[in-house]
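Lab notebook, bench 4. The sequencing result for the construct came back, and we need a structural model before the next group meeting so we can plan mutations. Quick request posted to the team channel:

Model the 3D structure of this chain.
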Amino acid sequence: MPSPLAHDAARGALFTLLAQGARIVLQLVSVVVLARLLTPHDYGMLAIVLVLVGLGEIFRDFGLTSASIQAPELSSGQRDNLFWINTAIGAALAAAMLLVAAGLGAITGEPEIVGMAQWLSLLFLLNGLATQHRATLMRDMRLRPLAIADVSAAAIALALAVGAALLGAGYWALVVQQLATGLVALLGVVIAGRWAPRWYSRTHRIGTMVTFGWNLVAANLVQYAARQVDTVVVASRFGTTSLGLYNRAYQLVMTPLGQVRSPLQSVALPLLSRLQQDQPRFESYVVAAQLALGYAIGIPLAMLAGLAEPVVAIMLGDAWAPAAPLLRMFAIAGLLTTLSYVGYWVYVARGLGAQLVRYTLVTAGIKIVCVAVGSCFGLIGVAIGFAVHPAIAWPVSLAWLSRITPMPTRRLYGGAARIVAVATLAGAASWGAGLAGRGLGSWAEVGLGLAAGLAVASTALLLPIYRRDAASLASFVRLMVTRRRPAAGAAGRA
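Done. Here's the predicted structure in token form:
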């Protein structure tokens, strides 16, 4: 019989993925509708302000969401103290953005951006107030009300933004959308969380959590800087046209990939944190998570790599054909980073903040070297360097983790080898079928490639080890769609 914890995790993953799917649809609707009511200039100003907001959000959370979830024990007093810290940081960031808004307008030469930045500074305060309410829901694995709050916030905000745009509000419609999202989400998690913070008290110690959170902030800042390395190299060495090709290919792969992988962290962290003292189950869940992510994401990415040319033609147009080999490299990089993604979860669930910072610095250095060497071979060389980086960093991550905490290293390597093998065969089949369909049109090439890739991937089920993997994944899917039955005693009392 599956454990209640496994069932809660599966159901949480289902609600999280459904909510993320709904939010992606709402984002697409927002783009389609608001783009016809507003101007590119309006969106350009919002993009500038959101760069500052995104950087500030790293500090606003201060890693305390993960610290709250990861803590083996969290008293109500500690939670209250964390709430006031997040709120104070949010208020401080809001005040700082109010102060720099005028300077931002002077730098950009856009006086309208001043008011936009001043109003959007409220996002820091709203998100600061919501942080520990969200963390409490995730810690308790109450992911259904959290999903409802997020989707409701996105839907209501879109409706208000469209209404404002129809009334002629212009770029203020985008401000309304951002603020409404933050406010409705805050109300949703407060109502669902059902707790009210008390005043800060020094009797409840949170020093270790703050230290852990600061280490996560440091690691995130290093990662943020490392993510810009390839963009800077391409812009400085090959110019804006090459950067445009590189950026569009990157966004086609990495943006959807991030929208799928990142929300699952809200399921994985509370689950693994609960299992810190149960090493056999902890290892089993880590291995299962790698298999689930690897097969579900890796095989589609491999087929995308094989069908890069027709996909670029469909998504971007024939003028963007030089982006196809770049897209192929990003798809390969996406597969490799997905295999290593569970390593980050282990660092956080185990509370290994300082070790995560050191590891992040090492992998950032590996990326810089790979991209720099690759740039000697042109734009495609940069993309190859981008893909080689996770191939080197992933074994380093496993070796590093295995030295500081028990890890099922052999099982992770074995699972990764199986995933890479079947993904490679599927990608090759997609590529071959796409070539065979050349001349029939891009849509036909993609259709033939997908059919061939899935058919070849399915043949792996002829091997017993792949059938065991498939059975494990199928059991998890059944848990996702099945309500947990109450225990016999509970049913009798009811």
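Confidence is low (pLDDT under 50) at residues 487-494.
Will bring this to the meeting.
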